[in-house]
Amino acid sequence: MTFSRSSAVPRVPTPPRGDEVAAYDTYLEAQRAVDYLSDEKFPVQHVTIVGTDLRMVERVTGRLTYGRVAVAGALSGAWFGFFVGLLLTLFGGPEAGGVLFVAIALGAGFGLLFSVLSYSFAGGRRDFTSSSQIVASTYAILCATEQAGEARAMLLKSPGGLGKSRGAPATATPGATAVPDPRWTTPTGQPRYGAMRPDSEASAPPAPPSAPAQPPAGQEPTPPARPSDPYAPPSDDDRRS
Q1: How many domains does the chain have?
Q2: What whole-number distance in Å separates Cα of residue 18 and Cα of residue 146?
Q3: Residues of the domain holding 47
C-alpha cells in the first residue's frame, strides 16, 4: 500500500502555497489539528504546517567538569570497543573469546584520555553542556484554496479550535494617555527644535479658522478695534475731553 500526494514534494526549497486556516503557538497543537483533520477523513495531503519567525534556542543543561568529560569519553570509547571486539569475536573463532573484554577496556581508556586532553586544550572556553533547537513563534496550517473552507469549518469543531488570531488591528484602550514621541519632544514635553517630522505629519493641512462669536439677540455687534494712527485727526470724543 502506498501513500501518494496530489502534488509531488518539490526537490528544491519552495515557498508554501495555500490559504491559512488556523495558527497555533506550539507545534504539538498544530499536529493535533492535522490529526483531527485526518480522523475526520479530510484529504490531509493538501495541508502544510509552516513555522514562522524561526529562532535558534540553545538550552544549557549543566556545567562541564573534568569528571563529566571523563565519564562521557569512557562510555563512548567503551561502546566503540564493544563493537570492534564483537566483530573480532564473530570472525576470529572460539579462540578470540577474551578479545571482547579487552576491546571494551581499551576503547574506554582511549576515549577517556582523548576527552580529557581535548577539554584541557579548550582552555575553559565552553564549560557547559547544551541542547539546540529551532523554534517558531507561530505554527500556521495552510490548505489548498479549494479545500480551505472545509478545513476551517472542521477545525472550528475541534477541541483546539482555530488557535490564535493573527493580523488583528491593535485597538486603543479607552482612557489611555498618549505618550509623546521622544523624537519630536524633550523629556519635559517641550517641542524639540530642529527635529524633522515625517512627511505625513508635516504635510497635514492647517486647521480652518474659527468663525467669530455672534453677539446675543438684541445687542449690536461691537466694531473691531482699529489700530491707532498718530497722524489721524482727533475724533469727537477727543475734542470733548
Answers
A1: 2
A2: 9
A3: 19-57+136-156
